[in-house]
Amino acid sequence: MLNIENIDVSYGEVQVLWDVSFNVNKGEIVAFVGSNGAGKTTTLKTISGLLHPIKGSIKFLDNHIEKMKPHKIVELGIAMVPEGRRVFPYLTVLENLELGAYTKRASQYLEDSLEWVYQLFPRLKERKNQLAGTLSGGEQQMLAIARALMSKAQLIMMDEPSLGLQPTIVTEIFKTIEQLNKQEITILLVEQNVAKALEISNRAYVIENGRIVLSGDSESLLKDKEVKKAYLGI
Amino acid sequence: MLKITHFLKSKKTWFYILISLLLIALPFMVSEYITYVVVLTLFYAMIVSSYDLLLGYAGQLSFCQGAFYGIGAYASALFSIKAGFPVYLSIPLSVVITALVAAGVGYPALRLRGAYFAVTTFFLAHFVYLIFLNEVWLTNGPLGLRGIKPLEALGGIDFSSTTNYYYLVLVCFAASIYILYRTANSNLGKMFISVREDEDLAESFGINTSLYKLVAFVISALVAGIAGGLFAHFFRLLHPSTFTWLTSEMVVIMTLVGGIGTIFGPLIGASVVMFILEFLRFAPELRFVIWAVALIIILIYEPRGLVGLVERIRRVKR
C-alpha cells in the first residue's frame, strides 16, 4: 500500500534520513520505533508532504507522492495523528471533527463518519459542543484519532499517541488502535514506547540516527537481544 | 411567538436597539462638528473591524490596512477627477482596484509567515505612501489632491451635507459589520480560526491554508477600500500624510485596544481611540504622549482589550 524506497531527507544542509526504505501492506499495523532524534517524525512529515526527499521515491496506491503537496496527499487517503495531540483548542469537538472531513471525498460521508467515530468514542459524543481545549489529555488524543478517521483515510499515521498520558489511558489508546485495525484500517505507528508498540503491531522497523537498522515481525523483534538491551531495558 | 417574546425580553436586544436609535438620532442631538468626527470614526470602525477578520480570526498580523484605505481613497478620487466618472461608479471601481492590489501582494507575501509577513506588509504601506507623495503627475504629490467631487445627489438627497452623508456612511458601516460578523461565524470563519491556531495542522487535513489567508487578506482590504472611497468624497481633499504607515499602525492599535477576534471589540476600540485623540486636540504636543500612556495602561491591566473589560464588569455584576 505504501512503498518507500531509498529516501534521503534533509533540513537545509543537515541530512536527517539516510537511505530509508520500508513498506506498509494493507490491513497491517506497522510500528516504527527508535529513540529521540532518530528520524521518526521526519519520516512521517516526508510521507505527509510537509517535507520532500532529496532522493528516492514514495509510492502510495500506485501514485508517486514524494513531490506532492500535503493537501493532495490527504485527498489520496493518508491521514496523520500528529505528535502531542494538537487539537484546535478554541473550536468545539464537533468543529474539530468536521475539519477532519474537510476533503471533498470525506465531506460526502460526514454524517456517517460522525456516527462511526461517536460509536468508537462515546465520550466525544457527550462532549461534542465543548471546546476541545477543555478536554483531558486522553480525550484530546481520542479526538485527534477520531479527527483523522473522519478523513476516510485508508492509512493512518500516528505520531507518538502515548506521549504524556497516564498509563491506564495509554493502555486504552493502544486497545483503540487494535480495534481500529480490526475495522480494516491500516496503521503506521511511530512510538517511543517500544514494548507496547511491538506488542500490538504485525511488523516493525527500528530506526537509529536516520537509518533503518533492524526490521522484522514484531514478535521476533520482542525477543531480539539487541532490541531488549537497547529499548526494553531488560 | 415564543421566539419573539424571548427576543424582546433579552437585554442584548434592547441594548442593540438603543445603540441603533442613538446612532440614527445622533445628528439631531449633537453639533455638526461631532457628527463630522463620528463619520470619520465610522470609516475607522469599518477598517478596523475588517482588519480583525485578518488578525483576530486568520491570525495574520499586517501593517498595511492604512495603505488599502489610501488606495481606495486615491483611486476613487482619480477616477472621478481624471476620468470624470460619477462617484457611484468611481467608488466600486476603486474597491475592485484595492482588492486586486491586495490579491497581487498577498499571493506572494502570505507565503511568508508571522513576522516576515508583517514586515513585508509594512514595506507595502510605505511604498504606497511614497507613490502618493512622489508621483506628482498622478496624485499631485505633497500639494494634495483637491477639487474632489461630492457624491451626486440622488432622489433629492444632497450628499454634500454632513448629516445626509452621515446616514449613507452609517448604512455602509452597518452592512459591512453585518457581513463581517456573518463571515466570522460561518464555515469560512472556522477555516480562518484553524489557520490561526495551527497552520501546519490545518494543512494536514487538506485545508489549503494559503488560499484562506489570501481570502481574509482580500476581504479586509476590500472593506478598507470602501471606507477609503467614501472618505475621499466626504473630505474632498486627499493628502499623502493621511496615509502614512502611522495610519496602519493606528489600525493595529485600535484593534488591540478593542480586543481581537470579536469584530465588535475593534469597533469600540476605534470609537474610543478616535474620541480620545479628538478631545486631546487642546494639547497638540501632548496628544500622543497622553494617548501612549493610556494605551500602556490598557494593555497592562486588560490585555484582552476593552471587550475584556466589559466582560469583567458583567461578571462582577452577576
Task: Give your account of this protein's structure.
The complex is a heterodimer of chains A (234) and B (318). Chain A has a domain at 84-153. Chain A is built from eleven helices and ten strands. In chain A, the strands form two sheets. Chain A has a six-stranded mixed beta sheet with strand order 6-7-8-3-9-10, with helices on both faces. A four-stranded antiparallel beta sheet of chain A has the order 2-1-4-5, covered by helices on one side. Chain A starts with a strand and ends with a helix. By secondary structure, chain A is α/β, with parallel strands linked by helices. Chain A is globular. In chain A, helix 3 runs parallel beside helix 7. Chain B is mainly α. Chain B has a domain at 33-245. Helices cover 76% and strands 0% of the residues of chain B. Chain B is built from 15 helices and no strands. Chain B has helices spanning 2-9, 11-29, 32-57, 65-82, 87-109, 114-134, 136-139, 162-184, 187-197, 199-204, 209-235, 245-258, 264-279, 287-301, 306-317. In chain B, helix 4 crosses helix 11 and helix 9 (187-197) packs across helix 11 (209-235). Chain B is globular, with a radius of gyration of 20 Å. The two termini of chain B are 29 Å apart. The mean pLDDT of chain B is 90. The interface between A and B is medium-sized, with 23 and 14 residues.
Task: Give the topology.
The complex is a heterodimer of chains A (234) and B (318).
Chain A: E1 2-11, E2 14-24, E3 29-33, H1 40-47, E4 55-60, E5 63-64, H2 70-76, E6 78-81, H3 93-100, H4 104-107, H5 110-120, H6 122-126, H7 137-149, E7 155-159, H8 167-182, E8 186-191, H9 194-200, E9 203-208, E10 211-217, H10 218-223, H11 225-232
Parallel strand pairs in A: 3-8, 3-9, 6-7, 7-8
Antiparallel strand pairs in A: 1-2, 1-4, 4-5, 9-10
Chain B: H1 2-9, H2 11-29, H3 32-57, H4 65-82, H5 87-109, H6 114-134, H7 136-139, H8 162-184, H9 187-197, H10 199-204, H11 209-235, H12 245-258, H13 264-279, H14 287-301, H15 306-317
Helix pairs in contact in B: 3-8, 3-9, 3-11, 3-12, 3-13, 4-5, 4-6, 4-11, 5-11, 9-11, 12-13
